[in-house]
Amino acid sequence: MTGTETPADRSPQKEQNQGLARSLFRVSLPRWRGSRYSLSRLFFNFYLLAMGSFVAIAFTADFVISTAQRGITDDYARRFMRGTITLIEDELFRHPRREWQKRIKDIDEKFSYRLGIVERITLDRTLTPSQVTKLDAGDIAIDHDGDIMYHRLGTSSQVLVVGPLASNRNPELTDRMPLELRLRLLTWSLIGVIFAIALWFWIRPIWRDLEALRQTARDLGDGHFDTHTPSARTQLFAPLSDTMNSMAERIRQLLATHRELSCGISHELRTPIARMRFALEMLSETDEHAERERLWAMMEADLDELDQLIDTSLTYARFEREAPEAHFSSVKFAEWLADEVDSVRLLGRRLEVTVDTSRLPENICVDLDRKAMPYALRNLLRNAFKYASQRISVNAELVGNDIHIHVDDDGIGIPPEEREHIFSAFTRLDRSRDRSTGGYGLGLAIARRVLELHGGTATADASPLGGARLTLSWKAHQ
Question: Rounded to the nearest 10 degrees, how much is the dihedral formed by the CA atoms of 164, 170, 174, 178?
């Protein structure tokens, strides 16, 4: 554990840290206090946009197609009306020309559209040159603007006028809705209803996901970092939901690290500061040179301890905040391991430190970060130096594709229930030996972070020597 305070003592401190973190986030994050998303508003906005776009596209396409097929439509209309116009022409030719106007009025009463006779010369300004050419050639000319057909009666100067053919231009047909218009209204009504139903079932899950994400963001902004975004109902928002959950988890980890560092450092600072204050008081009360030298040495040792605590805490915070980018290089592993152990062997003083690489393949080369991995190995060795009685053994082996480094000591060992817990920050099991062994419970935590950077892990077990075995293992990319 990290100190001597009880769980009841730490609870108010934990609540205070959480309250501080929430206050900071309330200041730094914008507050959104808007109302809930309106499903009806979202639906109608989508519906009007989509349906309006669809109608505009449909009418544009209809106009383009109608313009392109106008020639085909005119040919069909001529063939369709040619028989009727020929019968009317034959009926007029049975009577003298002076009776044509009277006769056309009698025939007009039998048709739902208008019939009339005009002079050819009056149509020069009404028809286009191409239409006039067709009219003079004896063909049927069609005026699209007025929906009227013209046909010259034989070789005379008079022209038969048929139309307007459209129902909205004939008072006789205004009492009922045209079939074409009724079909169009029915078709568009069915399209609108089917599209609305499909859009509703599509947009409702999206609205639920939006509301869930908004509520999660609002809770995070209020400092409730245990908030979890529900699983997205649509694949559209599934990546965003996973990203927000990862962000919330990362925030929780950072806050937990902050709390651990704050509580641990505040506790660890008390002891050296108290010793320094005591040494200063004693220094002012003694005139003996030897005693003053001893007190000065004690204060220098306490300053070194404070400096080491700050350096180790910053290193741990850096690994927790963001994983540094690994820079791997290939090393001759047996030689590298022996050199690293020799570099810290003096710290063991009277302890026997041995290195065994006999179970490794000859001249094996392994990829590792030559800056970070030594830090992990030295932390394991320093831990062994503190608790070993007489002997420390460092051995390495290749198990499948994994490389293992075992650091064994003949010390007091680690209880099975605590073997995972010791890799947490500010964790020290033998409190009675804290003052004599030193340390802050950060070395093993940093070692595990380094191994995670390599895609491996650090574990603890019982040692064949009777004490503790600490193991570093990762993939050996040979």
Answer: -20
